[in-house]
Amino acid sequence: MTRDERQRLARKIIRSTEDQIDDEHFIHRLLAESTLYNIYEDEKSTFGQKAADLMARFAGSWAFVIIFCTALILWVGINFIMTDRAFDPFPFILLNLILSCVSALQAPFIMMSQNRQEEKDRKRSEGDYKINLKSEIIIEDVHYKLDSIISRQKQILQLLEESEQDK
């Protein structure tokens, strides 16, 4: 193959890749941009949010269940034993009032904590979506480049065969 033929072949190959430079620039920018982030770093919890999380964590534990059941049993037992001098006799009206207040306060704390957890889950799923989308774009680009390389190799082989036949 002469020098002129090699130059023509090189020019053909270069012309076919010039239009791919914009795509290449986009892919490199995409690769440079990090989609990984820690959802807990961005979070600045207020005192109320921390209290709600702590209350929800404690209210959903076995320690809470055991302490609460023990307190109820003690309350009922003491009031049964003290029959005449009981501070809360049998229908346990005071106990019902305390239980209602506990549940009335506990429910909003648990709901606030669940809302915050839902927001964290939403941010996490958005991050996962971005990572998956980025991966899909990059994989498609790799497949495209492999196909392009294969087709260029075929073109080069064909051009080489044609140049050998011309001799």
Mean pLDDT: 84
The low-confidence runs, each spanning 5 or more residues with pLDDT under 50, are none
Morphology: rod-shaped
Strand content: under 5%
The secondary-structure element order is: HHHHH
Largest sheet: none
N→C terminal distance: 9 Å
Structural class: mainly alpha
Report helical residue fraction: over 70%
- Supply Rg: 36 Å
The total of helices stands at 5
Task: Characterise the protein shown here.
With 167 residues, this protein is an all-alpha fold. It has a domain at 45-144. The protein is 81% helix and 0% strand. The chain has five helices and no strands. The termini are close together. The model has no long low-confidence stretch (mean pLDDT 84).
Structure summary:
By secondary structure, the protein is mainly alpha-helical. It has helices at 3-18, 21-32, 47-59, 62-81, 93-166.
Relevant terms:
167 residues, mainly alpha
Protein topology:
Layout: H1 3-18, H2 21-32, H3 47-59, H4 62-81, H5 93-166
Helix pairs in contact: 3-5
